[in-house]
Design a protein that fits this description.
The protein is α+β, with helices and mostly antiparallel strands and about 150 residues long. The chain is about 35% helix and about 30% strand.
């Protein structure tokens, strides 16, 4: 009798586990029960996945690799290390073979006046998707650079 009771309990437990396993995919498709589908009602399409990939893998390159930097970077905005816009390219200094060495940036100061500072090419990366220069310098470091010329 004890063996029959244990066998029945084991069978009942197996039946409950089977029912839960069978219901889990349906619950997941409805977005219930947590996990991936609780955040999103349908899986991403291949075009959504490709779009997200292109956003997360922006193409940044050192200024030494930018083709024709004087033209390419001529009107680019410049961001500090936090991603805040600090100014706009005024001019590009290049080597005789056309590689950028420094960028003269027109900064807008808090009091409304503008001044130009020179940022070395090694402190900047070019984002070809957004056409922006991204600096490794903070806003404070950029603001403390000496003025190179009037705007």
């Amino acid at each position: 009798m004890l063996n029959n009771s244990i066998t029945l309990r084991g069978t009942a437990l197996a039946a409950v586990a089977g029912a839960v396993c069978a219901a889990a995919p349906a619950a997941a498709q409805r977005g219930g029960g947590g996990g991936y589908n609780s955040m999103q009602s349908t899986p991403p399409t291949s075009s959504q996945t490709m779009s997200n990939m292109s956003k997360s893998s922006r193409v940044t390159q050192p200024l030494s690799q930018v083709k024709d930097p004087a033209t390419t970077l001529a009107s680019a905005n410049v961001e500090d290390s936090s991603g805040d816009t600090v100014g706009q390219v005024k001019s590009v200094s290049t080597t005789p073979d056309g590689k950028a060495t420094a960028i003269n940036v027109s900064l807008a100061t808090p009091n409304g006046t503008a001044r130009v500072v020179s940022i070395g090419a090694n402190s900047l990366m070019y984002d070809s998707d957004s056409k922006r220069l991204k600096s490794t310098l903070t806003q404070s470091q950029i603001n403390s650079l000496p003025a190179t010329q009037s705007p």
